Amino acid sequence: MVRKRIRKSVAIISVVTLVVTTIMTGCGKKRKEFKEYGNSSTSDAVSVHTLTDSDIKTTSGGTLIDRLGGEPLQYSGEITVNGIPVSINVTSKIMETDTLPIYKVTEITEEDVREEEIVKKIFGNDFRALDSENDVLKSENGDSEEMMYLAMFAMGEDGDPEDPNFETKTWVDSEDYFLHIYEGDIGGAAYQLLISYNRQYHEKSFALYPKNWGDVCGNPTLDKICTTSSDGKVWVGSMPVDAPDIPNECELSDEDMIDKVFDFVQENVFVDLPKSDIGFFSSSWYYYEDESEIQKDAKSEMVFVNDEVLKDANLSGSIRNGYELEYNNTISNQQIIYSTDDIDFSSGMMHQIGDSGIFMVNDLGVIGISLSAQYKFDEMLETDVSILKYEDAMKAFCKAMEENSELSKAIKDEKKYEFKNMKLMYYPIPDGNGTMKMTPVWVGDLERGEDLVAQGIVSAVDGSYINTIFIQY
Questions:
Q1: Of the candidates 11, 81, 306, 316, which lies 20 to 30 Å from 401 by C-alpha distance?
Q2: For residue 247, is the peptide bond before it cis, meaning its omega torsion is within 30 degrees of 0?
């Protein structure tokens, strides 16, 4: 793997402002895990923001920005918790959408992984489980670099898979999670398959990559892959270079590629994704030296290279063949919150191994994929729910944080506390029947100095208090 992309902190992990470097950056993080703190204490503060039923105005239909009352989406105020003032100075950037559905969902269980079925779907009966003590992934063995990164991240290890001495395990069964890697052939190309389940997060993860990228581009000597970004560059390692001026050999339409991804995930991984949220890879995650060069509608294209090609400034001899698509753990472009539990950085944290979904597609179909999923989408309960206007929602947020939340657990001294970020997200609200309603919520980040100490969550539908997530370091 040639690219090492640097992404902004909105990241694949939806815990707000929790920065976790993704598998494609080549940067490792130590294991972290979530810790529950129970449901204790309430605030003694008196509300200074009043919002009566007659004040609440809900909206539906039209663009999301219009429904929220138009830009700019900003709000300032102050609440008091434990006798300590807490500032509210928030600005929200919204991903536009025409509808905000509500889904009935259930958590993915270990039974839902269906490991044996997946392996046989992918490889048939001709495969090998890398389950012996001597099995490791190493670059000198010709193993997939993508798979090495994924396994390393899933196990919370540090290292650089490009180091010839680097190696990582292929088979782990622990109390918290399992991770199993298999090998087999697909259409004459050698592939490696990863299947994992994290019991802490009820998260199923799947990855499938060729050992040699040249086997899926028409030239076996081009064993590495780069991708283009919206500024017209190709990422080689951590550095962008001008993309080669050659046509893309993939003849699939945009719709065909999305269909292939959706069908592959449903039929082979047994995961349902909202099809409307599968799209072309957004290089808005990148940092750019010159933001003016960004082409907003540019697709991320696959460029196949090898070490000799990379020595040429024009990447002469490379092949442009296929596109990179993604699913960013969203519903109607709004992020699904990653964890509903408190977060304890001090003990390490297992995090998801995929970008929620990264899919490499050309005329052969889906030739590379990493995917993580926590929920099964059972049915759509509402096609477009009404939501509060932004100002009303912020007043409801302030009221909830003073009156109903456990925020007092985070407010312990006279330091400056401030809500700085406010994001519209989706949150699984239990319905009392063993299932959940995936519902739009507002998530506010409470900062003490430069540290994120808590997240307050209220319903975007009616402003009711949902949860407070506490952060420990």
A1: 11
A2: no
Whole-number average pLDDT of the chain: 80
With a CB cutoff of 8 Å and minimum separation 6, the contacts of 304 are: 213, 214, 217, 219, 222, 224, 225, 226, 318, 319, 320, 321
Q: How confident is the model at residue 13 (pLDDT cuts 50, 70, 90)?
A: very low
CB 470 within 8 A of CB 454: yes
Report, as an integer, the average pLDDT of 69-80: 92
pLDDT tens for residues 45-71?
A: 323 333 344 344 556 567 899 999 998
Q: What are the strands, taking DSSP E only, across 199-238?
A: 203-210, 224-227, 233-236
Residues 63, 75: Cα–Cα separation, whole Å: 20
| Pairing of the two strands 177-186 and 189-198 | antiparallel
Cα distance between residue 118 and residue 403, in whole Å:
49
* One-letter-per-residue 3-state SS of 135-169: CEECHHHCCCHHHHHHHHHHCCCCCCCCCCCCCEE
CA 196 – CA 425 distance, rounded (Å): 26
Per the listing, tokens 């992309």 go with 5
